[in-house]
Amino acid sequence: MRAKWGSKLGFILATAGSAIGLGNIWRFPYLAGQYGGGAFLLLYLICVFVLGYFMLTAKLAFGRVAQTNLVDGFRVVGERAGQKVSPVWGWLGGWIGFITGLLIAAVYIVVIGWTLSYVIEGGALFLGLSRHPIDEHLFERLVASFGYQLFWSLLCIVLTTFILVKGVKKGIERVSLYLMPILFFLLLFLVIWMIFLPGAGRGVAFFLKPDWTRLGFTATGFDASVFFNVLLVVFGQAIYSLSLGMGVVFVYGSYLPQQTDIKSSARWVVGLDTLVAFLSGLIVLPAVFVFDLDPGQGPSLSFVSLPLIFAQMTGGRFLMFIFFVLLFLAALTSLLSICEASINLTMDMLKTTRTKAALCVAAVNGIGVTVILLSFTNIIGLKIGEENLFDFVNRVTGAYMMPLMICVCCLFMGWKVYPVIIGNLGQGSGHQSKTFKTYLKWVLCLLAPAVIVISALFQK
Ligand code: PFF
Fold it and tell me: How far apart are CA 139 and CA 325, in angstroms?
C-alpha cells in the first residue's frame, strides 16, 4: 500500500519544509545582495506567483494521478490520458530527476554539515564552553579540514536516515509538524531584532526599493542582456526554492489523498516559502549595511560575514546560535524530501522495503559526500577544468539538470496529459475557472519552457 499523509496540515508543512531550506535563508539573501536588492526581489515575486505556483500545482496533481514513482509515472499517467508514451519521457524526466537528487543531496549535506558545526560551536561559545574566537578564520578552518567536515556530514546522514526509516506519516510529517512552527518563531525573533538595529534603514531600503538600472532599464534605453541575466538567476532560484527540479513535489503529491484541495495547499506552500525568503533578506541585509560590509560578496555572506557581524553585537553569541539553529532546521526538512524522492524510486526499482532503500540511499549519499569533500579540500586533485567537484555539481545541477527536468515535466503535462491533470486538480478544489485552466495550459506548454530555453541561451 502506498504511504499517505495523515492530514492536510501535515502535508502543507512537510511540503513547505521541503521548499524552505538553505535556498531561502542562505542563498536568497546573498543573491539579492549580488543582484541589486529590491530589483531582484521584485522579479523574484513575479516569477514565483506568475510561474512557480502554477508549476507546483500541476506537479502535485501529476504525482497524485500517477500514484507511483517518477520514472513509471510518465507511462501510467499517459495511459490514463489514452496516450502512448515513449520511455524517453521516463528517462529524461525520471532518471535525470533521480540523479540530480543524489548529486544535490551530496552538496546539500556538506553545507548542512557546516551549519551543524556552527550550531555546536556557536552553542559552546554562548555557554562559555569554547574559547575559539569567531573571526574571519572560522570558516577557513572549517573548510580546510576533510575529517571535520566529513564527521558533521555523516552525522546529518544518520539523523535523516533515522527519521526517514519511520515513514512518511510517522517520520517526515511528524518532524515537520514540530519543526516548522519552531522555525517560524526563531525567524520572527531574528527579524524583529535585526530591523530595529540603529542604522538598519539603509539595508531595508536596499532590499525593498528596486533600482531599475539593475534590471537593464536605464535613462538611455533597455539593455536586454542585463535583464535576462538577472531573470536567469531569479528563475533558477525560484525553481530551487520551490523544490521543483527533482522528483520531490511529484512524490509528495503521490502521497496525497484524492479529496485534498491541491490549489489551496500549493498557495500556502508558495506563500510560506516566499515569506521565509523575504524575512531572511530582512535579517541578513540590514545587518550587512549596519556594519558597512559589501552586500554583493556572494555565498560567504552567511558563513563569514554574519558571524563577524554577530561578534560585534550585544547578545551576538546568542543570536548567532539562533541563526544557525534556524538554518539547520530549515535545511534538515529539505534534505528529508530530497532523500525521500530517492528512496521512493529505489524501493520500486529494487522491489525492497523502505528501511533497506533508506540504507542504500544513505550509503550512496555517504560516498557522494566523501568524494565531494576529497575534491573540495584538495586532498586528491579531483577537478573538472578549473572547478572542484562541489562547485561543478552545484553549477551543472542548477544550470542544466534541474531546468531540463522541469522542462520535460511541463511539456509532458501541458501537451500530452493536460486533461488528466486538470481533472485531478478539480477533485477537492471545487469549480475551476476557464481563465485558470487556460492560463495553466499556457504556463506548461509555453511560458515555463520558454523561460528555461531563453535562460539557457543567456547562460555564460
Ligand atoms: N527547496 C530547497 C531549498 O530552498 O533549500 C532545496 C531543494 C529541496 C531543492 C528539494 C530541490 C528539491 F527537490
Answer: 17
